[in-house]
Amino acid sequence: MAESPVLNDHVRTLSAKIGPLDILFRPMSRNDLDAICQLEKDIFKSPWSRRSFEIELSRPEYSHSYVLEHRHAVAAYTVLWFMADECHIANLAVAANYRNRGIGSWFLKKIIEIAKDNRSTIIHLEVRTTNDAAIRLYEKFEFEAVGIRRDYYSTGEDALLMSLPI
Ligand SMILES: CC(C)(COP(=O)(O)OP(=O)(O)OC[C@H]1O[C@@H](n2cnc3c(N)ncnc32)[C@H](O)[C@@H]1OP(=O)(O)O)[C@@H](O)C(=O)NCCC(=O)NCCS
């Protein structure tokens, strides 16, 4: 099996301030999964299963997952896939009580840095066509809509495919 390109080897815990919040950015671990699975159920209509996250954590050759922690609670998390020179944001969420405080923006900026460090030349993602908050966040970082995937979600909703060359 191929070695992990660079990411979890050198992206370690990092302290930062987002507004007044002291946060930790770090790789996701199995110890986070109780909290993350609860957030998934609270946030998404089609939540990922615990098994899905376990599979992601067992595939460091292409899957890298991170959390933002505040006072020992998971405030946000992401799952990134790296394939050839592409980074795919497979999952990204901010806990409801942490939204609209710049956490999503800080996280996305960090994701872009990680993708560049990993020699990606483009970032892709899918987002529900009705998810205005997320679409605005991505547009703020100059992601562009490049297509629609019909019936992409198990709920029958369409996905907007967005990309950012980096
Ligand atoms: C989308 C999401 C990650 C944004 O996180 P956040 O921490 O609230 O984001 P920020 O506070 O950094 O806001 C970033 C930008 O998002 C947009 N935004 C955030 N909330 C918004 C809302 N309710 N309505 C419209 N735009 C919104 C704004 O453009 C904002 O920029 P601005 O503050 O400069 O105007 C968060 O709402 C979330 O986790 N939603 C549920 C999960 C989800 O949809 N994930 C994305 C799946 S693809």
Draw up the topology in text.
Blueprint: H1 7-10, E1 14-18, E2 21-27, H2 33-43, H3 50-57, E3 63-70, E4 73-83, E5 86-94, H4 103-117, E6 122-128, H5 132-140, E7 144-149, E8 159-165
Parallel strand pairs: 5-6
Antiparallel strand pairs: 1-2, 2-3, 3-4, 4-5, 6-8, 7-8
The structure holds coenzyme A.
The site of coenzyme A (COA) has 20 residues, from strand 5, helix 4, strand 6 and helix 5.
How would you characterize the overall build of this protein?
With 166 residues, the chain is of the alpha+beta class. It has a domain at 7-121: Aminopeptidase (3-Layer(aba) Sandwich). 28% of the residues lie in helices and 36% in strands. It is built from 5 helices and 8 strands; from the N terminus they run αββααβββαβαββ. The chain has helices at residues 7-10, 33-43, 50-57, 103-117, 132-140, and strands spanning 14-18, 21-27, 63-70, 73-83, 86-94, 122-128, 144-149, 159-165. It has an 8-stranded mixed sheet, sandwiched between helices. A hairpin with a 2-residue loop joins strand 1 and strand 2 (21-27). It is globular, with a radius of gyration of 15 Å. Residues 1-6 have low confidence and may be disordered. It binds coenzyme A (COA). Residues 43, 92-94, 99-105, 125, 127, 131-134, 136-137, 140 line the site of coenzyme A.
